[in-house]
Amino acid sequence: MQLFHRSWQRAWQGAGCTMPGDVLAAELLARYREPQRRYHTLQHLRECLAHLEQVLGQVPDPVAVELAMWFHDAVYALAGPGAASNEQRSSVSNELRSAQWAQQALLAGGAPPALARQVHELIMATRHDALPATPGQCWLVDIDLSILGAVPARFDEYERQVRDEYAFVPEELFRRKRAEVLAGFVARARIYSTPFFHDRLEAPARANLGRSIAALGAGADT
């Protein structure tokens, strides 16, 4: 919990606005503990914040990026069995609601409107439906995608966690849709936009993705 406390204090103090009470931090941490989550949990938030601490000195907008990191998966509601084909739309809705929550919380604390808007835009970049457009987005998205370049054991755990989150999706449909998502990352000229993460994680990520796509295809044939 020391990482969470340190990061929370640093981000709000850097924003130059009223430090929110413990209620907001507790509510956010409780969201990441929700029972429907398997990957988008405190483990994910902790891993992201740890990566961010490594590179804070290189990030041009560290306060905005750190605040966005806290809120980027604050809302994570899955659509359920009746909307399995609408996975992407559900994800967009989650990120929009997370971004709106962050913007409202910052404005309530007296943050400059420009900062609140920036945090909103950063969170929306984690939809991963387009390449990041600003330096801050590049850092945030790279950190959010750092799991793709994790050691094989952690990446395999991540894949199981994602499957568990979508346990309501039939196996054949899940395999097809998941393979499409992963292939989309492989098709990019660069998975990671920043030199820091590209140099360290690009090759492991491509190896992990290739292995997972092959396994998804093999499973579909059995």
Describe how the helices and strands are arranged:
Blueprint: H1 2-15, H2 22-31, H3 42-55, H4 62-71, H5 87-108, H6 113-125, H7 135-144, H8 152-165, H9 171-186, H10 195-221
Helix pairs in contact: 1-4, 3-7, 4-6, 4-7, 5-6, 6-7, 9-10
What does this protein look like?
68% of the residues lie in helices and 0% in strands. The protein is mainly α and 222 residues long. The chain folds into two domains: 1-128, no CATH class; 145-222, no CATH class. Helix 6 crosses helix 7. It is globular and about 55 Å long. The chain starts with a helix and ends with a helix. 32% of the residues are buried.
Low-pLDDT segments, ≥5 res:
82-90
What's the overall average pLDDT, rounded? 93
Q: What is the molecular shape?
A: globular
Estimated structural class: mainly alpha
Order of helices and strands: HHHHHHHHHH
How far is the first residue's CA from the last residue's CA?
44 Å
Rg to the nearest angstrom?
A: 17 Å
Count structural domains.
2
Query: In DSSP terms, counting alpha (H) and pi (I) runs of 4 or more, how many helices?
Result: 10
User: What is the helix content?
Assistant: 55-70%
Residue fraction in strands: under 5%
The total beta strand count reads 0
Report the major sheet: none
Brief synopsis:
The protein has 222 residues and is mainly alpha-helical. It has helices spanning 2-15, 22-31, 42-55, 62-71, 87-108, 113-125, 135-144, 152-165, 171-186, 195-221.
